[in-house]
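R.M. (postdoc): so does anyone remember the format we settled on? I'll just put the structure tokens first.
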């Protein structure tokens, strides 16, 4: 893990790649700091949501909401507050190994509606920078360089360059570049079922 990494360090490295000055904080009064404050949370969420990174996967039992839904569904459960993209990867009625996943449910905002009385979810959680592996931090640096390039340098060509470095070209379905290397490293430690699930979702 890259225990010394922070959001400011990641953004500073991206700025250095663009030939710009590092920042000391998101609120240091600089234009770059203000840009990073706006862009970084979105880019981080995007990077986490691109792939089922092993370090971001969680399984939890949901707590039932205090108020019942007024629709067809009889039960309402509160989704985890740290969930990336706002939707779980899989929903179950049991945490037993090999349990079939539930398909009869609906997501409304931060609530999962169902007829079941017990709900577990597999989901991707947001992760603190100090708990991110180095290959993912590198991907984040490249993706921040991509998103900062045009406003910092006023050069679209630099934005295009760092986009290709980070996720490849449109012909690669944005699954190339360093992203491909990072997923290969991460995927070496995951089960074939997790990877198969990702491929099926990615094709849709």
């Amino acid at each position: 893990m890259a225990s010394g990494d922070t959001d400011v360090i990641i953004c500073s490295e991206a700025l250095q790649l663009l030939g710009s000055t590092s920042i000391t904080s998101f609120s240091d009064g600089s234009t770059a700091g203000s840009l990073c404050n706006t862009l970084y949370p979105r880019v981080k969420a995007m990077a986490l949501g691109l792939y089922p990174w092993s370090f971001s996967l969680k399984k939890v039992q949901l707590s039932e909401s205090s108020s019942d839904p007024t629709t067809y569904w009889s039960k309402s459960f509160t989704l985890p507050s740290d969930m990336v993209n706002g939707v779980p990867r899989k929903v179950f009625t049991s945490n037993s190994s090999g349990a079939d996943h539930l398909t009869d449910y609906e997501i409304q905002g931060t609530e999962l509606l169902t007829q079941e009385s017990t709900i577990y979810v597999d989901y991707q959680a947001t992760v603190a920078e100090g708990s991110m592996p180095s290959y993912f931090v590198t991907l984040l640096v490249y993706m921040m360089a991509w998103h900062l390039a045009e406003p910092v340098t006023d050069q679209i060509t630099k934005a295009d360059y760092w986009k290709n470095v980070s996720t490849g070209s449109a012909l690669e379905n944005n699954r190339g570049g360093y992203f491909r290397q990072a997923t290969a490293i991460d995927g070496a430690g995951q089960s074939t079922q997790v990877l198969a699930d990702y491929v099926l979702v990615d094709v849709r």
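R.M.: ...and that's the designed sequence above, right after the tokens. Also worth knowing: The first helix runs from residue 7 to 17. DSSP finds six helices and seven strands in the chain.
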